[in-house]
Design goal:
By secondary structure, the protein is of the alpha+beta class. Helix content is 19%, strand content 12%. It binds iron/sulfur cluster.
Amino acid sequence: MPDQPIPDQSPDLRVRLDRTLCDGFGFCAERAPTYFPLDDWGYASLEGDGRVPAADRDHVHRALLDCPVHAIIEMRPDED
Ligand code: SF4
């Protein structure tokens, strides 16, 4: 029997961005630019609904960890 590819079991990540906390450091845009575009003043917004597929998880999680003001927040699976 041929080897079957092992599906990626890592769960999707869900994040939200609290723009009231963002101080425009821009680290998130460096780590995950398609998720955190910056406006003309350097403040981030969140592109999309915050759902991050496994393929992008590491980049977005890095952005979350590196945000100095913790403006990127991981959502619980049951949180809306
Ligand atoms: S890293 Fe944090 S403070 Fe900096 S732009 Fe992104 S969300 Fe804002």
